[in-house]
Design goal:
With 184 residues, this protein is of the alpha/beta class. Helices cover 29% and strands 24% of the residues. The chain contains 8 helices and 7 strands, in the order ααααββαββαβαβαβ. A 7-stranded mixed β-sheet has the order 3-2-1-4-5-7-6, with helices on both faces. Strand 2, helix 5 and strand 3 form a beta-alpha-beta unit. The termini are far apart.
């Protein structure tokens, strides 16, 4: 548990060998959520997709041409296709390179003071953005919870039209999960 607390905001170290036994991701737990993210992305008819932080359950595998970007090398090894090891804040792509940028369960690993900048960095890379945010984070790390309500405001301020979906079955269990689709 100490490793999780110490390295939560350092995913390179936290996920050096894959997921620690004490944690998981929403897309690992629920293939249905992964399917929803995938369907939302496919509905945008992208030719070129960037999936940031695919972990070991990428939502976009098999869709169009996908580039996977992750800071943890362990997650990139098993993926087919183009793989880039980099931090989303320093992604090696020109703005607007991708038709759709897909991000799932990543903001929890960004320090709260940098989250607005992280959303802007994600949004800059593509014409559209599909952002899945499970709010809960982990109880053992202060600041890991990612409140969803500022996200649409940030995206609208960047010139996007935003639709929001909440997954009520999870919300009733105390785990609010939101999907934001931002279109230019």
């Amino acid at each position: 548990m100490n490793e999780i607390h110490t390295h939560w905001f350092d995913p390179v170290t936290l996920y050096r060998d894959g997921y620690p036994d004490e944690i998981t991701s929403a897309l690992r737990v629920s293939p249905l959520l992964r399917d929803v993210v995938r369907e939302e992305t496919a509905a945008l008819a992208p030719e070129l997709v960037l999936e940031i932080g695919p972990g070991d359950m990428p939502a976009c595998a098999g869709l169009a041409k996908v580039v996977f970007l992750d800071v943890a090398q362990v997650f990139l090894r098993s993926l087919d296709g183009l793989r880039v090891r980099a931090d989303l804040m320093h992604a090696p792509f020109e703005p607007g390179t991708f038709d759709v940028v897909v991000v799932s369960d990543v903001l929890t690993h960004v320090r709260p003071a940098r989250r607005r900048d992280a959303v802007a960095a994600m949004a800059a890379l593509g014409r559209h953005l599909v952002l899945f945010n499970p709010e809960m984070g982990t109880e053992t790390v202060a600041g890991s919870k990612v409140v969803s309500h500022p996200i649409p405001e940030i995206l609208r301020g960047l010139g996007f039209t935003v639709t929001v979906r909440e997954f009520m079955a999870f919300a009733q269990a105390g785990h609010r999960m939101m999907l934001f689709t931002a279109r230019r």
